[in-house]
Design a protein that fits this description.
319 residues; mainly alpha; Serine Threonine Protein Phosphatase 5, Tetratricopeptide repeat; 3 domains; globular
């Protein structure tokens, strides 16, 4: 029944959810084996109607995803489910500093600072998922006021909230703070495609040469490279629309196509090639995108990438 309930959440089937909750009210806060709750799943799939229903039936907006410190609101903002985020706020969820930054709510942001600019205790109860070099999880939220503000700046940058970025910059955050994926606020402003946020961060002294911890890119390339790595096709297309020269940007020893092929992200591979990506380019180790996909024969996505790239070569060979 739990699997069936979560399936209805993911589809946005409010009628089915209402019927199941009428017979089994406890489902409203059930835990899926993957660690999510119904509200977290509704946030992930951007289902505002489902969120309203779940809150009305007693859904816990403070439920935490078991593998992070994310609440439904912080997760909705992180994945760009803004309809879901606003549904949570309409349902009475009060954002902490981290979430207020993601919502772009400048008055709420300022309410967490006293008249002297000092940050209130407990301003953020959520935050980005961060890891030490040994893989251990770092505190979430961070422990120092300056890092808490920097973490909120990451969220404002990731969601492209320019006014929130400017407001938080006035409170002296650490511009080299490493948030999710080891990226700085500047990395994530480029990911969002927010020119205003990028310019504000650069004027404030953000370092455009720092590399993130996962794909090893400087901020300008990170926006498209991270999207390529995780398979976010719409985001890849958005970054290319902003700057077509990014299609073959070589940063950290690889292009977006190399990263997508290695991760088995066929949708991104197709989008990049259709946009003019050079499939013959070699990475820092001399490998093409096809080589990288072939090196992972047990990965279903990589197998599909190999098949698609190879199928493109065959007609040319026959010609």
């Amino acid at each position: 029944l739990v699997e069936e309930f979560f399936g209805a959440v993911n589809r946005g089937d409010e009628a089915a959810l209402g019927r199941m909750l009428a017979t089994e009210p406890s489902l409203v806060n059930a835990r899926h084996p993957d660690g999510t709750t119904p509200l977290l799943a509704a946030a992930d799939h951007n289902k505002p109607g489902v969120i309203a229903l779940l809150l009305d039936r007693g859904g816990d907006p403070g439920s935490i995803y078991e593998h992070s410190a994310h609440t439904p609101l912080s997760w909705a903002l992180t994945v760009g489910s803004f309809d879901a985020a606003h549904a949570l706020v309409r349902g009475g969820v009060e954002p902490d500093l981290f979430c207020a930054a993601g919502l772009g709510d400048v008055p709420a942001i300022e309410s967490f600072f006293d008249a002297d600019g000092r940050l209130d205790d407990g301003a953020s109860t959520t935050g980005s998922s961060r890891y030490a070099p040994d893989g251990s999880r770092l505190p979430c939220p961070p422990t120092s006021p300056r890092e808490i503000v920097a973490d909120a700046l990451y969220m404002a940058s990731r969601t492209g909230r320019e006014e929130a970025v400017r407001a938080l910059l006035a409170h002296g955050p650490d511009l080299s703070f490493r948030a999710f994926a080891g990226g700085t606020a500047l990395h994530w402003a480029y990911f969002a495609g927010s020119r205003g946020a990028v310019e504000a961060l650069l004027r404030a002294g953000a370092d455009p040469t720092l590399r993130d911890d996962h794909v090893g890119c400087t901020p300008r390339a990170f926006g498209i490279c991270w999207a390529a790595h995780v398979g976010w096709v719409t985001k890849v297309r958005q970054r290319l629309a902003d700057d077509p020269t990014l299609v073959d940007v070589m940063d950290g020893g690889h292009t977006p196509l190399h990263l997508a092929a290695k991760a088995g992200q066929l949708g991104v591979v197709k989008a990049l090639v259709e946009a003019g990506a050079n499939v013959a380019l070699r990475d820092g180790e001399g490998k093409t995108a096809l080589d990288l996909a072939r090196a992972r024969p047990d990965h279903a996505g990589c197998i599909k990438v190999v098949e698609w790239l190879t199928s493109r070569e065959e007609p040319r060979a026959q010609a």
